[in-house]
């Protein structure tokens, strides 16, 4: 990625003082034209670079301009490499090690045991391949097709991928759906038979409101309930330690909002006999019907 290359060029110039464009092109496996553009970008960022022709010439940082020993502090480098290491957990290539070699060092010099981030799921192999395919499709401006499973059923989709998103502890692809003629967010664990097609697309301007993922979901369906004390840890995990009022008998009284009635039913069913819904009356009836359907399923 370009940002890694720019970091590497700056670090190389600090270490070697003067280098040639062919040297940088070979080191970072890009063309000399790309290196020239990178040099311009670095200068625009406020780091003055100069180029000298002839024997002993090359690219260097302007004399008299100094960076504080390094472009990044040890804490900043640690943050960068921790972030890269987390991406390595869902990638088939070791970005962290590759970048460390290019800037002259080892990631162990900046990585600590203070934080470990693993973005993989139980389906790491499938996830990594999906991420690689989607990244290649975005880079080549090619549509992707897949079979998608969702609440209302399943369908084949053709979308123009814009962005890979990690949100709500899961991975998604954000793009323009050709069938719906709108921007949509698709969970990677629900899409299968993923392929990069030969169908090209021109990048679209994404309305700002479409990038505010989840902004359309409101928790305005209020339900009151009493939970058994033994599930307190689950309530705290989801909503925090102040999400309930403890009753004299130990019961945990809550009054929360849900996005839909269906989501509320799914949530409460997950607690079995450890919760009792108090209201509104409509939700009480929905819970009775759901529990009755479950009882009938087992023929009792």
Task: Give a quick summary of the entry.
With 300 residues, the protein is an alpha+beta fold. It has helices at 2-16, 21-28, 32-44, 74-88, 95-103, 124-140, 208-211, 232-239, 261-269, 281-297; strands at residues 18-19, 49-52, 58-61, 142-150, 153-167, 170-177, 182-187, 191-200, 221-227, 245-246, 252-258, 275-279. The protein has 10 helices and 12 strands.
Structural description of this entry:
Helix 1 (2-16) crosses helix 3, helix 2 crosses helix 3 and helix 9 (261-269) crosses helix 10. This protein has helices at 2-16, 21-28, 32-44, 74-88, 95-103, 124-140, 208-211, 232-239, 261-269, 281-297; strands at 18-19, 49-52, 58-61, 142-150, 153-167, 170-177, 182-187, 191-200, 221-227, 245-246, 252-258, 275-279. It starts with a helix and ends with a helix. A 5-stranded antiparallel sheet has the order 7-6-5-4-8, covered by helices on one side. The longest helix has 17 residues, at 124-140. It has 10 helices and 12 strands. It is of the alpha+beta class and 300 residues long.
């Amino acid at each position: 990625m370009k940002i890694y290359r720019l970091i590497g060029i700056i670090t190389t110039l600090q270490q070697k003082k003067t280098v040639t464009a062919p040297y940088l092109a070979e080191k970072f496996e890009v063309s000399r034209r790309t290196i020239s553009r990178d040099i311009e970008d670095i200068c625009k960022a406020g780091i003055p670079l100069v180029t000298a022709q002839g024997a002993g010439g090359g690219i260097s940082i302007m004399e008299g301009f100094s960076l504080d020993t390094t472009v990044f502090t040890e804490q900043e480098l640690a943050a960068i490499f921790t972030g890269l290491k987390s991406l390595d957990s869902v990638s088939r290539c070791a970005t962290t090690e590759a970048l460390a070699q290019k800037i002259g060092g080892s990631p162990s010099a900046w990585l600590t045991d203070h934080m470990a981030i693993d973005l993989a799921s139980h389906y790491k192999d499938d996830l990594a391949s999906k991420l690689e395919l989607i990244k290649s499709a975005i880079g080549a401006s090619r549509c992707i097709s897949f079979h998608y499973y969702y609440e209302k059923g399943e369908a084949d989709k053709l979308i123009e991928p814009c962005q890979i998103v990690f949100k709500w502890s899961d991975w998604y692809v954000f793009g323009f759906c050709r069938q719906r003629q709108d921007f949509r967010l698709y969970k990677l664990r629900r899409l299968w038979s993923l392929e990069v097609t030969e169908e090209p697309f021109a990048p679209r301007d994404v309305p700002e409101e479409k990038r505010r993922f989840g902004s359309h979901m409101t928790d305005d369906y209020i339900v009151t309930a009493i939970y058994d004390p033994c599930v307190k840890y689950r309530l705290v995990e989801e909503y925090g330690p102040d999400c309930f009022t403890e009753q004299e008998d130990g019961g945990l009284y809550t009054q929360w909002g849900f996005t839909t009635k269906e989501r509320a039913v799914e949530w409460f069913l997950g607690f079995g006999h450890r919760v009792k819904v108090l209201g509104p009356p409509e939700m009480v009836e929905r819970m009775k019907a759901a529990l009755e359907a479950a009882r009938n399923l087992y023929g009792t």
